[in-house]
Amino acid sequence: MTDKMDNSGIPATASSKRQSARNVGRPRTTESGYASLSTLLNLVRTGVATTRQELERHSELGRAVVSDRLSTLVKLGLLEEGRLGEAAGGRAPRHMQFRAAAGSVEVAVIDRSSIAAGIADLNGSLLMEHHEAFDITAGGAVLVERLTTLFEWMRDERSDLGSVWGIGLALPGPVAQNGELGISSPVLQAIEGWTDYPFVENLMVRNQAPVWVRSGIQMMTAGEHYAGAGGNRGNLILVKLGRSLSAGVVADGKLLRGSEGASGLIGYTRLGDEGLDSLAGSDAIAAAGLQAAQDAESPFLQSVLARNGVVDESDVGHGAQFGDAYCIELLTRSGRLIGEALAPLANLLNPDVIALGGAMAHAGDTILAAVREAVYRQAHPLVTRNLKIVTSQMGGTSGLVGAAHVVTEEIFAPRFLQGWILNGSPLHHPEFADQLDLARSTIAVPSKGRVAPPLERRPVAGSMAEK
Predict the structure, then answer these.
(1) What is the architecture, at CATH level 2, of domain 231-393?
(2) pLDDT per residue over 240-252, tens digit each?
């Protein structure tokens, strides 16, 4: 399926300048109609080019081709005519705009003790979100049912959006990159009720939409990159301070997952005889705080223990904010250890921003100041010259926003987009139909409630010749 190109009969030995001039604005012989539709849609969707003249220039397609493809994209409901631009000596150009409400994206972040769900448009803009406590030990079947209920509620609330085109899912801990089905999540697989349970397959069948899965830290990093401290700049390291310490990386605008999908496990970094998690994770801070209270080393924590019978990491943070010397020293020591682990990463990746997320990152500026001191001291001066080290800006919303952007980027990735664009939505992509068939065959016992009927398979549209 190749695009046709008018042959002027110029022999192969003709001047290269004449050949180059003849090809200006014309499609290459290897270009397909699907590719040109994909190119123009993404140029408009990302705002790189929105008028016909801009589209001709950026796509290197002829005027007639651009006009034809835009007309097709409007008929497919993916683009629409927008405002008039400013005239520059002639007719005012008409801007094309992407119909972000043509479909929707559902997203969820699963943590050990909570879940969050949301719905976004096709620009990845989060329009609605919901957070609630959830005991992950309840099992995968219970979670599928709860997420499906939340998604149905959100679809009813945002009936102005089109059908669901994809689901983005963030899971705790590393997620092995072995395809979107049959995910391998060590954290979940170790929990009774999750072992060998086809969670993604059930979610896909129940909601009739493709599912993209990433680790929680990777989704958080994507959200911080697109809408938070990363400022949509090219290079970001996000560090989540929790029971375990993990990092997400955006390099040259792309989220790095690693060959196995397990990038960013900095908590396993050895500092002396122990790992970083056991030295600076929230459990380690809570344990040290409790010991200090029992040994009367911290008046503040001693009073907390007497009042509550327990001391946790948030108490240590509050103590530092109230000026307790032990709490300040404990958080400073933890921050320096984290900074020492981050300095080699900064030297390796030369990021624009290092952002600290998680509850401990927002417990005052003690840890932040210590991380800055360690990184600025140990990283190369050129690396730190314009480096910003800040706290994350998005809190619990970052994972939802990141999941929405991950899904939209996957949906509109040129290779995947060309497989569904003439059928109007990714729900009729042959790959998704195959995945859905595989998911159905994997589920031995259907999930509780109604299982959706088989997806209608539309024939792949025929060839489209360039004009």
Answers:
(1) 2-Layer Sandwich (3.30)
(2) 998 889 999 999 9
